[in-house]
């Protein structure tokens, strides 16, 4: 980063010298500046990706242990089985009963294998839907903690209807007559994130990322070069700042200096503060109004207006 700063300073010096000598090299210098800025942008985006994937980053259960007074995990989808990659249960936040659903990654090889790297199977999404509908029935708000590369793309998952399970969640979560707050705490990857990512409020931790595909996948498919993943990360606009500017998320939750992995407890407390603040507002709203505004927000994603005023 300091190297880029030095290059830009030298470019400014060259511009000054060229102006004094009456030489026009502005076009060449602009190309250099653009290249440097592009490199800097790629480095910043990739740094976020690496922080989002840090194995010491707080996982869903770590966050739950801080934000909840008590928590009881529930299991099973009542169709096939239980999915340890997607956990859920009932907790109390400052005495308020809530249903919490989240992707759970592991910290080491044994845990990662047991949790399937946080990549849920169909039964995980069906469990999430069962708990969400239960929350709606009993008037409990739903909190989702998103941290996954995506849904599991295995043969068994396809056979058991992973696409249908995610699609069903998208539809049903959009219609839940209870407050839904979604927080991306690490990676928010593709349909795996969307399956529990439809809510009244969607937040991202400062160093979280949210995208339709991984930078490596984007680079391999569209750039035809997997080594361009760092450049792809900047092109994809996947950081919290990018998503906030596009109004995909409602806000960014700051992390301790250096990243959430350096102080997981403080990061979790900041998440709790946002949840408590929003629950005080959302729980006082008419459920039908929540659903209406939730759907209006969803329909605005990707919407743009082309300015044709100069067209002849």
TrEMBL record:
Cellular localization per UniProt: Cytoplasm
Keyword Nucleotide-binding attached: yes
Its EC number(s): 2.1.3.15
Top-level enzyme category: transferase
Reactions catalysed: N(6)-carboxybiotinyl-L-lysyl-[protein] + acetyl-CoA = N(6)-biotinyl-L-lysyl-[protein] + malonyl-CoA
Chain ranges of the CoA carboxyltransferase C-terminal domain: 28-281
Keywords tagged on the record: ATP-binding, Cytoplasm, Fatty acid biosynthesis, Fatty acid metabolism, Ligase, Lipid biosynthesis, Lipid metabolism, Nucleotide-binding, Transferase
An annotated GO BP: malonyl-CoA biosynthetic process
Record bears the keyword Endoplasmic reticulum: no
Pathway this chain belongs to: Lipid metabolism; malonyl-CoA biosynthesis; malonyl-CoA from acetyl-CoA: step 1/1
Protein family membership: Belongs to the AccA family.
Function: Component of the acetyl coenzyme A carboxylase (ACC) complex. First, biotin carboxylase catalyzes the carboxylation of biotin on its carrier protein (BCCP) and then the CO(2) group is transferred by the carboxyltransferase to acetyl-CoA to form malonyl-CoA.
Quaternary organization: Acetyl-CoA carboxylase is a heterohexamer composed of biotin carboxyl carrier protein (AccB), biotin carboxylase (AccC) and two subunits each of ACCase subunit alpha (AccA) and ACCase subunit beta (AccD).
Protein name as it appears in the record: Acetyl-coenzyme A carboxylase carboxyl transferase subunit alpha
Organism annotation: Teretinema zuelzerae
């Amino acid at each position: 980063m300091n190297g880029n700063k030095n290059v830009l300073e030298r470019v400014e010096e060259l511009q000054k010298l060229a102006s004094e000598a009456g030489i026009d090299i502005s076009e060449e210098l602009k190309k250099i500046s653009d290249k440097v800025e592009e490199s800097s942008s790629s480095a910043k985006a990739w740094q976020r990706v690496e922080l989002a994937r840090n194995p010491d980053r707080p996982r869903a259960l770590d966050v739950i242990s801080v934000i909840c007074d008590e928590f009881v995990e529930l299991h099973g989808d009542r169709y096939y089985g239980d999915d340890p990659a997607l956990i859920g249960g009932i907790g109390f936040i400052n005495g308020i009963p809530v249903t919490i659903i989240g992707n759970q990654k592991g910290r080491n090889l044994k845990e990662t294998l047991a949790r399937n790297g946080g990549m849920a199977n169909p039964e995980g999404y069906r469990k999430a839907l069962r708990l969400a509908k239960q929350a709606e029935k009993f008037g409990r708000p739903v909190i989702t903690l998103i941290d996954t590369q995506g849904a599991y793309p295995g043969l068994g998952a396809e056979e058991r209807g992973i696409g249908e399970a995610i699609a069903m969640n998208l539809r049903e979560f959009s219609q839940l007559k209870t407050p839904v707050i979604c927080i991306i705490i690490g990676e928010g990857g593709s349909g795996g994130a969307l399956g529990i990512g439809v809510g009244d409020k969607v937040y991202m931790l400062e160093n979280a990322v949210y995208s339709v595909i991984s930078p490596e996948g984007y680079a391999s498919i569209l750039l035809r070069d997997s080594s361009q993943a760092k450049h792809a990360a900047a092109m994809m606009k996947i950081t919290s700042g990018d998503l906030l500017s596009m109004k995909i998320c409602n806000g960014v939750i700051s992390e301790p200096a250096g990243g959430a992995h350096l102080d997981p407890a403080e990061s979790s407390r900041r998440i709790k503060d946002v949840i408590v603040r929003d629950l005080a507002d959302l729980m006082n709203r008419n459920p039908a109004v929540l659903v209406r505004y939730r759907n209006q927000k969803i329909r605005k994603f990707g919407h743009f207006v082309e300015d044709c005023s100069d067209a002849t």
